[in-house]
Amino acid sequence: MSRGKSGRAQAAPGGGAGADRSGDSYLPEHGNGGYRVTHYDLELTYRPNTGRLSGRARISAVAEPGAAGEPLSGFSLDLGAFRVDGVLVDGARAARYTHRADKLRIRPARPLPAGAPFTVEVRYVGVPRPVKTRHWGDLGWEQLEDGALVAGQPIGAPSWFPCNDHPADKASYRIAVTAPSPYTVVAAGTLDSSTVNASTTTWVYEHPAPMSSYLATVQIGLYDLVELTDAAVSPVPQRAAVPPRLRDRFDHDFARQPRMMAAFEDLFGPYPFDEYAVVVTDDELEVPVEAQTLAIFGANHVDGHRGCERLVAHELAHQWFGNSLSVADWGHIWLNEGFAKYAEWLWSEASGSVPAAVIAARTRARLADQPQDLLVADPGMPRMFDDRVYQRGALTLHALRTVLGDDTFFAVLREWTATYRHATVTTEEFTALARRRAAEPLDALFTAWLHTPRLPELPGPR
Predict the structure, then answer these.
(1) What is the pTM of this model?
(2) Which of the two ends of the chain, N or C, has the fewest CB atoms closer than 10 A to its terminal CB?
(3) What are the residue boundaries of the Aminopeptidase N-like N-terminal domain, all occurrences included (predicted)?
(4) Is the distance from CB of 35 to CB of 63 less than 8 angstroms?
(5) Is the distance from CB of 226 to CB of 239 less than 8 angstroms?
């Protein structure tokens, strides 16, 4: 399990116990060591009138050896303020556990041999509470006026299921949600079935591709289901869940999404998942949020004039940059946000609007009047989502494009997405790939744009 800058999660001392810290350079208290997850199977029942969530999580994992190769005698999961009703390891073995401070610490009846697969089943119930953060507000499960949404980036996943909450521990998922029948449930993955019971419907979504825990999501609301697929433009299945009152505005604002998908496949390589979905909530959201195979927008992002189309491009681009290619450590966040921001500029160019070079020049001029105290490749945890990480990250890519030329630059992007498809990535891996493709040294460019606070000048056209 890759841990980026810190290598691997450090094993806790004493008897092969897994660490309850990930070793991440920014958020070490989120995520855990001693094992890697291969699959999550989630069975959830939600009551919108009370907000109560009942869950059974069955997690398949593989034990990792301790420092001396000893078996795993204990491990932990991240889980918010639920009542835990029971924990089983490998089906029949009741396990001892404690649950406090958002850590579920488990000690199986017998130590787990290094390299051995095992399962842990957790039953839990309660009213989900968002994860409160100092810098980013409340994250994770959020009760809406009529339904619920999950916006998990970066540490909101434990608000609704037990997990190893670090982006580098990617796993496949099955998510089954039972809710009252008037409600539509959309989750990460592909809808496998929807079964109507007496007064409820159970929706089952399967997602075989590896997914980071913060990218798993469930959206529940009174939605119309809309088909967006245009096979003549792009074969990727595309769908949406939209409040009925917003249908007309949505149909106009998202009409060009199939063209956007085709343009991005040309620029970035094949779409990395089986389908793509959009959910528009009936509530307003400060910003849209990406999840794997879908994106969530607020009612305020649908105005009937395509006023937020750049955000549609941004969230779609995250399916390549952030979701298929996930950061090995949160310190590499520009690989998500800088690339998605640059995709906004590329769509502007591809759709016949303002060229990326013009947007880059305007952006640099604005940034020149702002504090120049941020390293794109290491902004620090409080500034992970500082707008300058997005803007300067995009400028870094435009500078690289200018130096390499379009043919080489887009060949680099396609090789990047193909080489690390469904894997984890670091800044060093991206710069090494670009250097291999370049006809001239890139050290000065990367030092100036990624590792120096002062804003460089954009290189002139070649």
Answers:
(1) 0.94
(2) C
(3) 39-215
(4) yes
(5) yes
**Which residue type occupies 73?**
S
Q: Which amino acid is at 200?
A: T
